[in-house]
């Protein structure tokens, strides 16, 4: 690629992605993308970019999603025109619901073949992706590729991060141009990196509200995760002795070693905090299903609220506010900390002590229940053994319905979760992420242990990409399946809401371990709870991706029963 030599659109696209520090592109080959692939083969790998072939585009999009969650940088996925693009939709949609910056790249058919009913043609891909992407860009000329890449990355990462779509016509990919005739900029040359400061007046009002409250509460959400504000939120909470709950997307932003931490999943201690607090500082969170929609009885109608979010359309959307602040959570926390430290540090708060005792009681009760030796295995016992086994810095994936509730109940009882290390497609309630999330997690953090906890229904959805994990030679990647032969959450709904009139919720017995071995993984079936930890060690030492099929009993999580009692599950 010497000066004066002509390059094609595939070369230009890869050069642009390299400027954005893209390391992996997840997808399946397509004819219109061959010039892109050829650029990767000829020189891209030497520069640090490569493709990762998946066996389904949905899984590829999930992998891009996971990459973004772990690295806090955009993940890139692609699929061929028509069916490839359509297959990306579920994965992109899951990322959209959780505000994850995913770059979806799809080609279009030749301009000359537009509206001719050619193979894979006649699909308005921009319209298809519009509801689940923040921005869409379609280009037909090579010279517009650099600007288009700049625009999609700016949109994906600016403000509230979300997926974007780049559609490229083959004409642009095969066209040739002299390299010096193009201008490809680095990120700092075309988009703002620093976030704006909050006005001193707003910071002062926020602090006054917090200091005047008798029972303040902090909710740390995905906005704290994405902004990197976890140190600041913990420092603020401990200085003022304010209890903190984290949303699922905020998991890890508050250490469980801190007395201020109340955890993630709804339980009696958290319900006590949310319903009795007189002032809530909501940091980068949406009050969705897992947060009781911000409504009574989970939340008090009379409590005041400061809501901080980079996206102004989220503020006051689910719950009335006292003070709405459009801004980056980390910037807000740094500024308010500066002011807080001018006041006297709070040594003890009765409200804080009461909630800490409630949490302690909840934990002791849950661990006692989770320590039983019942057969079939109690799902709570499976979760306990997995969490106790995990490395301190392991990446955790949660995939499924009821099994996700069981996992969230105990998620930080034994070891603190670190920021950017817990993955769950919570916003869309999406199933089937375990296999692709695990693959991307190992590629992003090859030296870390990756463990997925999944239901049997969820795991089956993208089971075919176990082959991808094997092909990539991934190790210390362990998939733990809580197998109760049912769509557990839906069965619970039919049990309590429809007098046990079960339909389409039960599965025939399936041996996931034997299936995994067919792909080249390590596989093992576990029926005795005392074999869970030994099996995890065997999986870890197998030198292969591992699948543990744990036969658990069908049961209803305590969290779900609490939601039933609050009237949240059925509307």
Describe this structure in words.
This protein is α/β, with parallel strands linked by helices and 571 residues long. It has three domains: 6-190, 3-Layer(aba) Sandwich (Rossmann fold); 200-357, TPP-binding domain (Rossmann fold); 370-565, Rossmann fold (3-Layer(aba) Sandwich). The chain is built from 23 helices and 20 strands. The strands form four sheets. Strands 3-2-4-5-7-6 form a six-stranded parallel β-sheet, sandwiched between helices. The chain has a six-stranded parallel β-sheet with strand order 11-10-9-12-13-14, sandwiched between helices. Strands 16-15-17-18-20-19 form a six-stranded parallel β-sheet, sandwiched between helices. Strand 19 (522-526), helix 22 and strand 20 (546-551) form a beta-alpha-beta unit. The model has no long low-confidence stretch (mean pLDDT 93).
Number of helices: 23
> By helix and strand content, what is the structural category?
alpha/beta
User: Averaging pLDDT over every residue, what do you get?
Assistant: 93
CATH architecture title of the largest domain: 3-Layer(aba) Sandwich
Radius of gyration: 25 Å
**Would you state the CATH class of the largest domain?**
Alpha Beta
Quick summary:
The chain is α/β, with parallel strands linked by helices. The protein folds into three domains: 6-190, Thiamin diphosphate (ThDP)-binding fold, Pyr/PP domains (Rossmann fold), CATH 3.40.50.970; 200-357, Rossmann fold (3-Layer(aba) Sandwich); 370-565, Rossmann fold.
Q: What are the SSEs and their pairings?
A:
Layout lengths: L5 E3 H11 L4 E4 L6 H14 L2 E4 L3 H15 L3 E4 L4 H15 L4 E6 L17 H5 L5 E5 L5 H13 L6 E5 L1 H5 L1 E3 L8 H4 L9 H13 L3 E5 L1 H6 L2 H11 L3 E3 L14 E3 L4 H9 L2 E5 L20 E6 L13 E4 L2 H12 L9 H20 L9 H11 L5 E5 L2 H9 L11 E2 L10 H11 L5 E6 H6 L4 H6 L5 E7 L4 H10 L14 H8 L2 E5 L5 H9 L5 E6 L6 H8 L6
Parallel strand pairs: 2-3, 2-4, 4-5, 5-7, 6-7, 9-10, 9-12, 10-11, 12-13, 13-14, 15-16, 15-17, 17-18, 18-20, 19-20
Antiparallel strand pairs: 1-8
Helix pairs in contact: 1-2, 1-6, 3-4, 3-17, 9-13, 11-13, 12-14, 15-16, 15-22
């Amino acid at each position: 690629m010497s000066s004066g030599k002509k390059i094609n659109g595939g070369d230009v696209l890869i050069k642009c992605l390299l400027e954005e520090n893209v390391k992996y592109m997840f997808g399946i080959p397509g004819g219109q993308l061959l010039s892109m692939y050829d650029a990767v083969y000829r020189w891209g790998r030497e520069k640090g970019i490569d493709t990762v072939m998946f066996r389904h585009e949905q899984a590829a999009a999930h992998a891009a999603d996971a990459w973004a969650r772990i690295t806090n940088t955009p993940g890139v996925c692609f699929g061929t025109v028509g069916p490839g693009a359509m297959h990306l939709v579920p994965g992109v949609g899951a990322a959209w619901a959780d505000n994850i910056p995913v770059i979806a790249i799809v080609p279009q058919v030749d301009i000359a073949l537009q509206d001719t009913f050619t193979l894979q043609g006649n699909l308005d891909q921009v319209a298809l992706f519009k509801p689940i992407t923040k921005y869409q860009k379609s280009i037909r000329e090579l010279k517009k590729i650099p600007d288009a890449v700049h625009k999609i990355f700016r949109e994906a990462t600016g403000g509230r991060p979300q997926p974007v779509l780049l559609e490229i016509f083959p004409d642009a990919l095969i066209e040739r141009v002299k390299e010096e005739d193009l201008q490809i900029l680095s990120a700092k040359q075309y988009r703002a990196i620093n976030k704006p400061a909050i006005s001193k007046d707003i910071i002062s009002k926020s602090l006054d509200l917090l200091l005047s409250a008798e029972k303040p509460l902090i909710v740390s959400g995905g906005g704290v995760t994405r902004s990197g504000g976890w140190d600041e939120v913990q420092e603020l909470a401990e200085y003022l002795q304010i209890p903190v709950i984290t949303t699922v997307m905020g998991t890890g932003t508050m250490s469980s070693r801190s007395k201020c931490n109340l955890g993630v999943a709804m339980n009696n201690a958290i319900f006590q905090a949310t319903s009795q607090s007189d002032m809530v500082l909501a940091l980068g969170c949406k009050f969705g299903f897992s947060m009781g929609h911000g409504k009574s009885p989970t939340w008090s109608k009379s409590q005041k609220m400061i809501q901080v979010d980079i996206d102004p359309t989220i503020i006051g959307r689910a719950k009335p506010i006292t003070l709405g602040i459009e801004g980056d959570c980390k910037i807000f926390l740094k500024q308010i900390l500066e002011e807080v430290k001018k006041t006297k540090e709070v040594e003890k708060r009765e409200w804080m002590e009461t909630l800490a005792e409630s949490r302690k009681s909840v934990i002791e009760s849950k661990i006692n229940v989770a320590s039983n030796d019942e057969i079939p295995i109690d799902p709570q016992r499976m979760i306990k053994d997995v969490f106790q086994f995990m490395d301190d810095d392991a990446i955790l994936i949660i995939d499924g319905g009821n099994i996700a509730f069981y996992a969230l109940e105990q998620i930080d009882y034994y070891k603190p979760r670190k920021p950017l290390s817990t993955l769950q497609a919570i916003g869309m309630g999406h199933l089937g992420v375990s296999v692709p999330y695990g693959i991307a997690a190992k590629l992003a953090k090859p030296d870390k242990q990756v463990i997925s906890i999944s239901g049997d229904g969820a795991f089956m959805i993208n089971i075919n990409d176990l082959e991808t994990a094997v092909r990539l030679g991934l190790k210390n990647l362990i998939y733990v399946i809580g197998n109760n032969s049912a769509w557990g959450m839906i069965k619970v709904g039919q049990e309590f809401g429809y007098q046990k009139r079960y339909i389409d919720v039960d599965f025939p017995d399936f041996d996931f371990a034997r299936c995994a071995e067919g792909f080249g993984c390590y596989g093992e079936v576990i029926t005795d709870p005392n074999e869970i930890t030994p099996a995890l060690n065997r999986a870890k030492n197998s030198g292969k991706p591992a699948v543990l099929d744990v036969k658990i009993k069908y049961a209803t999580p305590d969290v779900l029963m609490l939601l039933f009692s609050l009237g949240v599950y059925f509307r």
